[in-house]
Amino acid sequence: MRNFLWMTIVVALLLAACARKQVEDVGKAPDVYRVQFDTTKGSFTVEVHKDWAPLGADRFYELAKKKFFDGNRFFRVLKGFVVQFGINGKPDVMDYWYQLRIPDDPVKQSNTRGTITFATSGPATRTTQVFINYDDNTKLDAQGFAPFGRVVQGMEVVDNLNGEYGEAPDQGKLRCRVTTTSQTTFRTWTTLRRRAFCSCLRQRFG
Fold first, then answer.
1. Which of 57, 124, 165, 187 is the one with CA 20 to 30 A from 25?
2. What is the structure's pLDDT at 201?
3. In percent, how much of the chain has pLDDT > 90?
4. Predicted pLDDT at 182
C-alpha cells in the first residue's frame, strides 16, 4: 500500500512538472533559426524564416524549445505528396496544445518540395501538426497553407521515412492514446528521437 502511494505521488509530480514545462515562456522566435531532427532513419534540418509566416514560426519555435516533438511518430506518409507529424505521445500534453490554436498566416511562400507547413482542419485551426512537402504541391497555396521553413539538410532522410501505413492511422485516436496505438498497430513507424536547436544558423541549444 505504501509503495503504491509513493508511486502515485511520483506520477503526480511528473505530470505536474510536464504541465509546468508546457506553459513556460520561451519568448519569440529569431528571424531565422534552424532545428535539427534526429530520427530512427537519420537526421534532417529545418531552416525557419519568420518573415514567411510569423505566427507559424513562433509556434514551431515554442514547440521545439519545449521538446514537444521528441518521440513523435511520422504518422502520415504519402510518397509524392507530404509527410506529417506533430502528435505528442502524452495525451495530457496533446490536450493542452489542442486548445491553443493560432490564427492563419497569409501565404507568402509556395508549397514547393522540402517546405514545411502547419496542417489545418479549417480556418484558424493550427496547433501542433506540421507536414513537409515531398513534391511541388503549389495547389495547397490557394487553400491557405503557409510554409514557414524548408528542409535544408537531410531531405534524403525525409524521403526515406517509412510510408507503408499511408493514411491508415486515425488521427483522433492517436491524439488520445498515441503511445499504445503506435506500439501495437504501427510497429515500424519512423520515430523522432530528439531535436537539437541551431539558432542563428550556428549555435546549438539543448
1. 124
2. 33
3. 59
4. 41
β-strand partners of 57:
none
Q: Pick from 58, 202, 34, 195: which is nearest to 126 by CA?
A: 58
Above 60 in pLDDT, residue 158?
A: yes
Q: Are 77 and 131 in contact (CB under 8 A)?
A: no
Q: How far apart are CA 49 and CA 69, in angstroms?
A: 19
Instruction: Please give the full DSSP string across 171-191, using - where no structure is assigned.
Output: HHHHHHHHHHHHHHT-TT--B
**H or E element, residue 131:** strand 130-133
The mean pLDDT of 122-144, rounded to a whole number, is 97
Domain 28-205 class in CATH:
mainly beta
Residue 105 carries which DSSP code? P
Q: Where are the domains of the chain?
A: 28-205
Q: How far apart are CA 105 and CA 46, in angstroms?
A: 19
